[in-house]
Write a structure and sequence with these properties.
Blueprint (H helix, E strand, L loop, with lengths): L1 H11 L1 H24 L9 H11 L3 E6 L5 E7 L2 E7 L6 E4 L4 H12 L3 H30 L13 H31 L28 H4 L6 E5 L9 E6 L2 E6 L5 E6 L2 H14 L4 H31 L14 E6 L4 H15 L4 E5 L13 E7 L13 H7 L8 E7 L8 H12 L9 E4 L3 H15 L15 E11 L7 E7 L5 H6 L11 E4 L8 E4 L8 E7 L5 H6 L7 E7 L13 E6 L3 H9 L7 E7 L2 H4 L3 H10 L4 E6 L8 H7 L1 H9 L3 E6 L1 H15 L6 H6 L3 E5 L1
Parallel strand pairs: 9-10, 9-11, 11-12, 12-13, 20-21, 20-23, 21-22, 23-24
Antiparallel strand pairs: 1-2, 1-5, 2-3, 3-4, 5-6, 6-7, 7-8, 14-15, 14-19, 15-18, 16-17, 16-19
Helix pairs in contact: 1-5, 2-4, 2-9, 5-6, 6-8, 6-9, 11-12, 19-21
Length: 735
């Protein structure tokens, strides 16, 4: 809900809000300029002395005013003509014309009314209200992204546009809140929507009837410092019943021109003081530093607008537009999608088109937004869910299980769950299975039995579609054509081969860094921004299903590197290991933020075997700050497949790698990485006590053995691998 409240006001009123913000930023400079240019009166200068000096220069003076920034201006009437000027308090002489700066007047008219009079004022008020909504919802979203208000300034990750948007927002949001809220309150007073009780001293009941007392001898004026003056109005010449009108930051009153005494005085009301403070907070008048800070906050609005638009466009690309997608409240069939890389959305689009053609009313949306209240007309729910990693929720499925578990009553419309995955993984369709089990436990009726799709099989999908059609009484044929991901061309720079002599060819392939467009750099798409641990995908010739490889390099390394082992009957690995320098491949990047080393100072315990060394080597290569890193590396034999042997020695010598332990399964003695962990238990425990994290990369069997070994190692601390996973201190990238 907060995202909707934040997104649409920003998109619909972006130009108006930018005009208000930029003109406000320009106005914020003028109080600072006035404060710097205002002549400084000598300390302790009284209103009596100032008035005397001005009167000596202009005997017909009628009024003296002092702005919040310290500019003193006088108005007079002499020889039948009016006059005005900015005054030097030290001499009472003219410094400059009193006419307002034409640039200031132009910007102020733009900011307050868009040059449209009262109509423009109403439009500006609407813009200020939208800015307030954006600031409030933006603040909530920043706290949500950073993990709470206490982590407001935590380090951010992700695409450049998203990071820049949040970085600026968390600095500017307080200023934007202050400017928009105070602007709305002041506008309400201008349009008389808020009444303000004012203090009026009234006319004095009696005056002395005398005149001609020198200004410097008037007690009330002599006791008032210029620093609190707002205005002094002189009596009409020759009328002894007139008084001096004095207004200060504390109140207003009347001074007898014959005795110099204060005849009547009224302090400012609480409301007047409040509005004076609000005006100062909004304009910066009298607080030039605050004004500049507010102006800087306003300058962030155009950048927030542009980056917000880029985020919105990137989101629309991630969730494809589906022609004829019905509103959630009117759809009879609701398709909820849990997808990590986007391929499941393609299947959902095909299903949507087939059901729509059969006469159904269908809505497709992300599984993360599941809420039965949004679907009052639903007659059936279809969940299409992929799985991330070892049974985790995919990107667009986060939060679904918690929402379902929180329901008091399961939806009335029946459910069918279809899982997407790869049978070679131990947690095949693990998230979809968990969703099905929880739905059954909550008493949610089944439309179809739970089913799965292996490796994006279009044949499996078509068979499931026919079963769905029979359940609905509709002729349903699902002819899905997977949309290939957008790729970039990579050129192989070099290759290093290992393990050929033991019939286990493994290659370190280094590709040239492809050029990135401005759009890709702003949105973080393509290879514009990546780290070791992210995934490089390739579509092998003869297959529509991409293969993913963990990256052993980051963008700053200046190249793209992966480690590939040639698998028996492996289509993609055979093609990759046949490449020669200069050959080209089409590849795409898939972020994998859950398996990043991070930028904190906590130590890392890196555990890998075989090609699992790839991302771990990338973490070590990037460890320029010499963060404590320990590597436990399992291989067959040091003479055949010791990947990164030279680099690891160099990194250990330079301090990027703290400790290296090798486990050779075909060496003497025969040793596995689990054995190294048990033998180094004391060192591992010390590192864990100091806050170290564990990162495991490699095959599923190896990862299971590592978890079993670490269960024993961690026991003295009362910890288990499962507990550390829940805390985010134990992460795996397994295959």
């Amino acid at each position: 809900m907060m995202r909707v409240l934040h997104r649409w006001p920003g998109l619909l009123a972006a130009l108006l809000v930018m005009v208000i913000a930029l003109s406000g930023a320009a106005l914020s400079v003028f109080p600072a300029l006035e404060s710097l240019s205002a002549p400084r009166p000598e300390p302790g200068l009284s209103v009596a002395e100032l008035a005397s000096r001005v009167q000596a220069s202009h005997p017909g003076v009628e009024q003296i005013r002092r702005s919040a920034s310290g500019i003193v201006t006088a108005w007079w009437f002499e020889e039948g003509a009016p006059g005005s000027a900015v005054i030097d308090p030290a001499t009472g002489q003219d410094l400059a014309p009193a006419d307002p700066d034409p640039v200031l007047r132009w910007v102020r008219d733009l900011h307050r009314a868009l040059f449209l009079g009262d109509t423009g004022r109403l439009i500006v008020v609407a813009g200020a209200a939208l800015m307030l909504v954006l600031a409030l919802t933006g603040g909530w979203l920043v706290a949500h992204r950073t993990g709470g208000w206490r982590r407001w300034f935590t380090r951010l990750r992700g695409p450049l546009a998203g990071r820049l948007h949040t970085e600026i927002a968390r600095v500017a949001v307080i200023g934007l809140l202050m400017s928009s809220l105070t602007g709305l309150i002041l506008s309400a007073r201008t349009f008389e929507l808020l009444s303000l009780e004012t203090a009026s001293p009234g006319q004095p009941a009696e005056v002395s009837g005398l005149a001609g007392m020198p200004l410097t001898q008037m007690t009330a004026l002599a006791a008032t410092p210029v620093s609190v003056l707002r205005s002094l109005t002189f009596p009409y010449p020759g009328d002894p019943d007139e008084t001096f009108g004095l207004t200060t930051t504390e109140g207003s009153g009347h001074v007898d021109q014959g005795t110099g005494l204060m005849l009547v005085w009224a302090d400012l009301t609480t409301g007047e003081r409040l509005f004076a403070m609000l005006e100062m907070l909004h304009t910066g008048q009298g607080a030039s530093i605050l004004g500049l800070l507010l102006g800087l906050s306003a300058l962030g609005v155009p950048v927030l607008g542009v980056t917000g638009l880029l985020i919105w466009l990137a989101g629309r690309r991630a969730h494809p537009r589906i022609a004829g997608n019905q509103p959630a409240a009117r759809a009879r069939t609701v398709i909820l999608v849990g997808s990590e890389g986007g391929s499941t959305w393609g299947f959902a689009t095909t299903l949507h088109a087939a059901l729509t053609e059969a006469g159904d009313s269908v809505h497709v949306g992300p599984l993360s937004r599941f809420d039965p209240a949004r679907h009052p007309a639903a007659r059936r729910y279809l969940i299409l869910a992929a799985t991330y990693g070892d049974g985790d929720a995919p990107d667009s499925g986060k939060g679904f299980l918690a929402r379902l578990d929180a329901l008091k009553v399961a939806p009335q419309a029946p459910l069918a769950v279809l899982g997407f995955g790869d049978r070679s993984y131990a947690a095949y369709c693990g998230f979809a299975r968990e969703a099905q089990d929880l739905a059954r436990a909550r008493g949610w009726a089944e439309l179809l039995p739970y089913a799965t799709i292996d490796r994006q099989s279009t044949q499996d999908f078509a068979r499931w579609g026919r079963s769905l059609g029979q359940a609905l009484g509709l002729p349903l044929e699902l002819a899905h054509q997977p949309q290939p991901p957008r790729t970039q061309e990579l050129t192989l720079l070099s290759r290093r081969d290992f393990g050929a002599e033991v019939q286990a060819l493994t290659s370190i392939l280094r590709f040239a860094l492809p050029r990135s467009t401005l759009w890709q750099r702003l949105t973080g798409q393509g290879f514009a921004r990546f780290q070791a641990g992210d995934l490089m995908g390739l579509l092998p010739a003869g297959s529509p299903v991409p293969r993913l490889y963990s990256l052993a390099s980051g963008r700053r390394d200046g190249f793209v590197e992966i480690v590939v082992r040639k698998q028996p009957a492996g289509l993609c690995s055979a093609q990759l290991t046949a490449l020669e320098p200069g050959d080209r491949v089409q590849a795409f990047l898939r972020p994998n933020p859950r398996f990043h080393a991070g930028r904190d100072r906590a130590g890392l315990i890196l555990i890998g075997a075989g090609t699992g060394i790839g991302p771990l080597a990338g973490f070590i290569r990037a460890n320029a700050r010499h963060r404590p890193m320990r590597l436990y590396f399992g291989l067959r034999h040091p003479d055949s497949d010791f990947l990164y042997r030279t680099e690891l020695a160099d990194w250990q010598a330079s301090g990027r790698l703290t400790r290296l332990l090798i486990a050779a399964s075909r060496g003497e003695p025969r040793r596995y990485v689990q054995d190294s962990l048990r033998g180094d238990a004391a060192e591992i425990l010390a590192a864990i006590r100091a806050g170290a994290r564990i990162m495991v990369c490699g095959g599923r069997d190896m990862a299971d053995g590592v978890a079993e070994a670490l269960a024993g190692v961690l026991a003295p601390l009362g910890l288990t691998p499962a507990q550390m996973k829940a805390e985010g201190r134990y992460v795996e990238d397994v295959y």
